[in-house]
User: Which sequence fits this backbone?
């Protein structure tokens, strides 16, 4: 099996220099080394964070390819007909969510929280979502793909068990026993020991217990997790990247929950459920999988794989009761996928035919304190994202310069911002004019861009046409919100910005 695995990786991935994958019985050090080696080999990070909406992110860990013995030995499960041990090879790396999807993440995407054990906003990013069906999860993932532009999915059953084991061959990542001390389960019904332990009786915060060698938490207990596969007997002919049966009645569920006895939380344990069932009494949630992009997304000479948009309320605005705004995207758009940042990401993805990841940051503080804005501190996370394209859409909240000195100060502030952004490697900076007419400001910004060699795109002040305002589409309690771009206005911004970028990049060198 080992020889076959080496041929598979070398032949199907990135050539003869590809690192070795994980093997059964790997030590914690070997697991960490394989994870880091594959991250370097693929030009990816071992751990990454993906923004869903501003302030809501999902953390993922790279799972290297490898081989393992899928299923359970007879000593673990004497009635193991459905868990028959068999050798499996996973031929490519992928990302797994370090934690189960939380209530806050689900709500950011779906706009609701179906959990039986609901948490308030302050805690909903820390507790897993449950009471969701397999069908619900597929809708969630489809919407998540639209928001992030990334190919999220459910893990296959083989991927789930391989990632949960993280190189181990024992019943659990930590060993052979469970009594509620090592994971959130029904401690009164332990496995591998006669000593009973605690029972929380409900979901707990994610990462309340230790993680496995890959940095994944709660693979045993807390909430069950849906997998992509239909449930059925293992097919011994599916030895490489098995996908399970093509059809079926039930979907696979893995990992156990807060109410499960210890034996149901084993890494090899198989459970199934109706895909329409939410499993409200047992607690079913999900863990995300994400494929590694095979190549960088390019538009002509420009890599557009990671897009960062820095702007004001037109770009992103979180809930603000004083103006009756309850959302967390570009103000006055009807949904996150309708604001200009997400629409622009769509233009870039379509033009490149690749995967374009988006991060958005409300940087209105720059507009209010241009001379003292600390870019390194304020944009630490955004620059760590290593964007390949940065779109700057700022200026509205700044005072219009009047005197010669004020104009010079305004221009120099933008010049400092552009210089700092340009110092990031492999980045193209694009500056976009405002939604409203701001001639005095834009004249200085344009000069700063010319001096820095930065592409400036004049979108023509779309606010001059009332049809582009949010108030033309829906009723807003606050006139200021309604004066922001509605869905049509956002489309105009995105289209004019994209057209300016396309033309501006034409003929440039990589």
Assistant:
């Amino acid at each position: 099996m080992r020889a076959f695995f080496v041929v598979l990786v070398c032949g199907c991935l990135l050539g003869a220099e590809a690192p070795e994958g994980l093997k059964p019985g790997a030590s914690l050090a070997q697991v960490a080394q394989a994870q880091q080696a594959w991250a370097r080999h693929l030009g990816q990070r071992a751990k990454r964070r993906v923004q869903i909406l501003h302030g809501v992110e999902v953390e993922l860990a790279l799972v290297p390819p490898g081989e393992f013995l899928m299923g359970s030995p007879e000593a673990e499960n004497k009635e193991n007909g459905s868990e028959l041990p068999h050798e499996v090879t996973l031929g490519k790396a992928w990302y797994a969510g370090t934690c189960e999807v939380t209530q806050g993440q689900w709500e950011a995407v779906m706009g609701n929280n179906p959990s039986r054990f609901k948490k308030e906003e302050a805690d909903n990013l820390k507790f897993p979502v449950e009471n969701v069906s397999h069908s619900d999860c597929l809708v969630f993932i489809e919407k998540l793909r639209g928001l992030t532009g990334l190919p999220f999915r459910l893990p296959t059953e083989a991927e789930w068990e391989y990632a949960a084991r993280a190189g181990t061959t024992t019943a659990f990542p930590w060993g052979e026993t469970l009594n509620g001390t090592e994971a959130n389960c029904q401690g009164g019904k332990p496995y591998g020991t006669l000593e009973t332990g605690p029972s929380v009786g409900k979901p707990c915060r994610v990462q309340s217990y230790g993680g496995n060698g890959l940095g994944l938490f709660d693979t045993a207990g807390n909430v069950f997790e849906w997998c992509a596969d239909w449930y059925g007997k293992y097919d011994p002919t599916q030895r490489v990247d098995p996908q399970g049966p093509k059809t079926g009645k039930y979907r696979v569920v893995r990992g156990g929950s807060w109410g499960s006895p210890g034996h149901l939380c084993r890494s090899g344990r198989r459970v199934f459920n109706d895909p329409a069932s939410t499993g409200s009494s047992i607690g079913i949630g999900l863990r995300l999988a994400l494929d590694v992009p095979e190549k960088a997304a390019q538009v002509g000479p420009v890599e557009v794989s990671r897009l960062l948009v820095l702007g004001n309320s037109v770009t992103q605005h979180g809930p603000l009761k004083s103006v009756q705004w309850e959302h967390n995207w570009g103000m006055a758009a009807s949904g996150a996928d309708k604001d200009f940042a997400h629409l622009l990401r769509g233009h870039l993805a379509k033009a490149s035919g690749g995967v374009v990841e988006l991060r958005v940051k409300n940087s209105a503080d720059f507009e209010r304190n241009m001379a003292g804005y600390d870019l390194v501190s304020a944009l630490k996370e955004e620059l760590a994202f290593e964007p390949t394209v940065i779109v700057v859409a700022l200026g509205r909240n700044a005072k219009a310069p009047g005197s010669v000195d004020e104009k010079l100060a305004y221009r120099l502030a933008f010049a400092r911002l552009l210089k700092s952004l340009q110092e990031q490697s492999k980045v193209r900076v694009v500056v976009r004019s405002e939604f409203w007419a701001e001639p005095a400001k834009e004249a200085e910004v344009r000069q700063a861009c010319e001096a820095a060699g930065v592409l400036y795109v004049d979108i023509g002040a779309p606010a001059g046409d009332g049809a582009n305002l949010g108030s033309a589409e829906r009723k807003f309690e606050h006139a200021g919100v309604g004066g922001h771009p509605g869905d049509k206005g956002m489309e105009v911004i995105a289209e004019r910005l994209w057209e300016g970028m396309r033309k501006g990049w034409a003929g440039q060198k990589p």
Observations:
- The longest strand covers residues 56-63.
- Residues 279 and 302 are 47 Å apart (CA to CA).
